[in-house]
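User: Teach me something about this protein's shape.
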Amino acid sequence: MVLALVGALVAGCPRGGATGPTAGTGSGSGAAAGSGSGSSGVGVRPPVPAGTPLLDPAGVPCQAPTCAFHPGAGSYFSCLSGGVGQCFHFGAACSPTDGCLFDPAARAYRACAAPAEGRCSQWGAACAPSSGCWFDPSDGLHRVCERPAGDGTCAAYGATCAP
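Assistant: First, the predicted structure itself:
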């Protein structure tokens, strides 16, 4: 039964024939002549001369990874792709180069005297991240701190920033 059904389907498949475009014979087939300046379309660009590269031959630089706080893990990781206040793709553990890390227990930024594997084992005094992009514990996003409070917290957060 199954073989009969498969045989019927295969028999109905087209075989051979032309493999490329063919000329039509009905109304509306054939070439049409156009007129106009070619500049009436939105987003239409003039033709590019042959041999002209469409992209910059030097390439497009990749965004440099940053070191971002991961709220779920409570530690820092390389942010390989992020924006709108959060990291979308984390990499290896890291420590911010300025030594100012977010302390999840204190919910504030502190200087770290002993960073290891994205965490701090010895906290110091309050600090402010040199990047200006702070982790906001109230919503879990990274934001510009418009008014640092001086105790490692932010008194007024602004727009989201790339971690």
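Now, about its shape. The first helix runs from residue 2 to 11. Helices lie at 2-11. If you'd like, I can walk through any region in more detail.
User: That's plenty for now, thanks!
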